[in-house]
Amino acid sequence: MANGLPDLIYRATDGNSGFELYRVRDNGQVELIRDINQGVNSSFPEQFTEFNGVLYFQAITPAFGDELWSLTQDGETSLVADIFSQGGSSTPSGFTEFDGSLYFAATDSSNGRELYRVLGNGSVEIVDDLRDGGANSDPSDFFTFGDALYFVASIEDDIGRELYQINADGSVSLVEDVNPGSGASFPFEFTEFAGSVYFSAQDGSSGNEPYRLTSGGDIQRVADLFPGAGSSNPFNFTEFDGNLYFSAASNATGNELYRITPSNNVELVDDIFEGQGNSNPFGFTEFGGDLYFRADDGVAGNELHRLESDGTVSRVADIRTGGDGSFPSNLTEFEEELYFTASTSAAGSELHRLTAEGNVELVADIRDGTDSSVPQDFNVFDGSLYFVANNGTDGRELYRLDGGDEEPVQVVDLNNGPGDASPIGFTIFPADTGPAPSLALSVADPSVAEGDDDDVSTFIFTVTRSDNTDGTTTVDFEVTGSGANPAGGSDFVGGQFPAGTVAFSDGQTAQTVVIQVAGDGTEEPDEGFTLTLSNPSGDATISTNNVSAVIEDDDTVIDPTPPPPPPGGDDDAVDAFRFFNTVAQGHFFTTDPNERDFVQQTLPQFTFEGVGFEALPADTDVEGATDVFRFFNTVAQGHFFTTDPNERDFVLNNLSQFSFEGNRFDAFDEQIEGSVPVFRFFNTVAQGHFFTTDPEERDFVQESLPQFTFEGIGFFAFPDAIG
Question: Which of 60, 292, 330, 698 has the fewest CB atoms within 10 Å around its CB?
Answer without folding.
Answer: 330
